[in-house]
Amino acid sequence: MVDDRKLDVLRAIVEDYVATEEPVGSKALVERHGLGVSPATVRNDMAALEDEGYIHQPHTSAGRVPTDKGYRLFVDKLATLKPMSAAERRAIATLLDGAVDLDDVVQRSVRLLSQLTRQVAIVQYPTLSRSTVRHIELVLLTPTRVMVILILSTGRVEQRLVELDAPLVDTDLAELRVAVNQASAGVQIAAAAAALADLPDGVRPEQVDSARTIVNVLSEAMSDHRSDERVAVGGTANLARYGDFETAVRPLLEALEEHVVLLKLLGESGTDALTVRIGHEGPYSELAATSVVATGYGPQEFHLGSLGVVGPTRMDYPGSMAAVRAVARYVSRILDEGNQ
Amino acid sequence: MVDDRKLDVLRAIVEDYVATEEPVGSKALVERHGLGVSPATVRNDMAALEDEGYIHQPHTSAGRVPTDKGYRLFVDKLATLKPMSAAERRAIATLLDGAVDLDDVVQRSVRLLSQLTRQVAIVQYPTLSRSTVRHIELVLLTPTRVMVILILSTGRVEQRLVELDAPLVDTDLAELRVAVNQASAGVQIAAAAAALADLPDGVRPEQVDSARTIVNVLSEAMSDHRSDERVAVGGTANLARYGDFETAVRPLLEALEEHVVLLKLLGESGTDALTVRIGHEGPYSELAATSVVATGYGPQEFHLGSLGVVGPTRMDYPGSMAAVRAVARYVSRILDEGNQ
DNA sequence: TCTGGCACTCGGATAATCGGAGTGCCAACT
DNA sequence: AGTTGGCACTCCGATTATCCGAGTGCCAGA
Description:
The structure is a homodimer.
Chain A: H1 4-20, H2 26-32, H3 39-52, E1 55-56, E2 65-66, H4 68-78, H5 86-97, H6 102-117, E3 120-124, E4 133-142, E5 145-152, E6 157-163, H7 170-184, H8 189-197, H9 208-223, E7 231-234, H10 245-257, H11 259-266, E8 275-277, E9 290-297, E10 305-312, H12 317-337
Antiparallel strand pairs in A: 1-2, 3-7, 3-10, 4-5, 5-6, 8-9, 9-10
The structure holds a DNA duplex.
Protein name (chains A, B): Heat-inducible transcription repressor HrcA
Keywords (chains A, B): Repressor, Stress response, Transcription, Transcription regulation
Family (chains A, B): Belongs to the HrcA family.
């Protein structure tokens, strides 16, 4: 049975432990928080909380430390997002508004997020998969060499160099340009790739080969989800504040190198909800000591990617959650604007 | 006076210390290296080397540790680059050949370099400043909205969205496209920016405003050296092997966040020579415990950027130098090929 | 159900001890 | 002059011993 006061005690334990990084005892608790009861009472509650698995004693005669389960309860029931201060809101707005292109938005977001939370921040680049084709440009560099440029609605630009078997003249290329754009402009890339596949059938015979080559490259670029896997990482210096190096820092540093791992951490579930993954809840047993606060972003429920922070299970959840949500909102808005 | 044998002793000390991370004593030295003399003799030499400032005793009755000056001598006089193994050469070649675009080349290089050296690797993106304009593309998205795409010889693509005051039709834009390309294709961007400045004077009166707007954006993009400051970092997990956290790891982690700092570390001197900066020789006093092995890259003495590794002063210089040089060569070659 | 009291536990900080690797120096040897 | 074995000495770091106190569980009384 977990009544209200026990929850208060749990909240107090979490807050104190996060702040001090040391097991918290009954006496210190009643002093620092106005619980209105005696240490002995708190001790009883603590014993109960421990029975339920919410807190844990490193050893007899030590204070209590929240378990993952304890943090979970804290996050689910007890945490009220710390509202961002006006100054912080302004900082977010001005910093992100100053971004000149997509790369810049991502870079600035990571930096911002890591500074706000003093944690390691991760921002996934907007995925190609759900974006639409804004424009395709074909440029004749030499008669047999075409530069193919694919511009997507998110602002991402993909470019490929194509070597043709037969020379092409400018007017031919212009026809082709019109054709590919008609077939794909405004269409989601998956559909665009499909639409383009039939295109070579419709062109003049002597252009078929060239068209086919170009279309192939285009669909390849469209279905190349390599860039879906791109992420930006920042704030690693914050790892330095971690206490335990071997169990906490090293595995995380290793994870940060592996972008695939990071994406899994962010949880590319496709949902835009703010999610918190605590310790062992995550997919990697080596990262049992780290938590992830993440959310999707994208204009109007349209999931373009995820961003979040990772840190020790002992982290400031309310603050991190608020920061992550705030940054995600601003990023979504920026991307939306650039997309009109 | 530093005779040959003393140099041998120094080399042995450096090698042993790098390998073991512990002060090395006279006895261990003669055992591990076939010096052919007795420990007592080595001790005499050590005393001399210490007088000269090449090595240093953490405390009486401890072994010796090389000083920065000692490493310097080692690197200048004693180090013979460890040749890359055939397997390593092949790994470099295949990995880098698989790169699909500029970003990919850089990403792969960082990864490669960090794995080869087991250090933190840094690769600067090719600078805009010395590259030439390959092509400029203007795309009419709406009558008053133009997407400007700038393609450079290094494969970098810059794109900007331009809002025009007056609507423009396709044929007008085509004229403009021809004009800007004629003015700038094949020209170094600094010169191209200058050449473009005069261009609006030559166009038809009703286009002047649009031309001016577009040209402004272009020269801005050309002189926007923001991307000159881009660097990729990899292998931070290797920091975990460092012993001393506070003095070695934390300052470096902080430095890695600051790309400007990194560029200074790489030494954007413009020279392509392989340089080694040891400990205090570098520009940052907080990084007195770290060394940098860096070199420029770019096809045929044409400096496009720098790459290198950073690590503790106690690092495997011969190995790192060889790896850095090898990777730089391959990167240069790749960039050259993509540039034909 | 809460509270004050009390005996008990145990980790971590502090102090004390000890061994050994390494040194410098010197006298003898080549 | 350069090299070597011997030897007394130093001092770090690992090991062990000691001790303090925060924190606990439990119980009896309000």
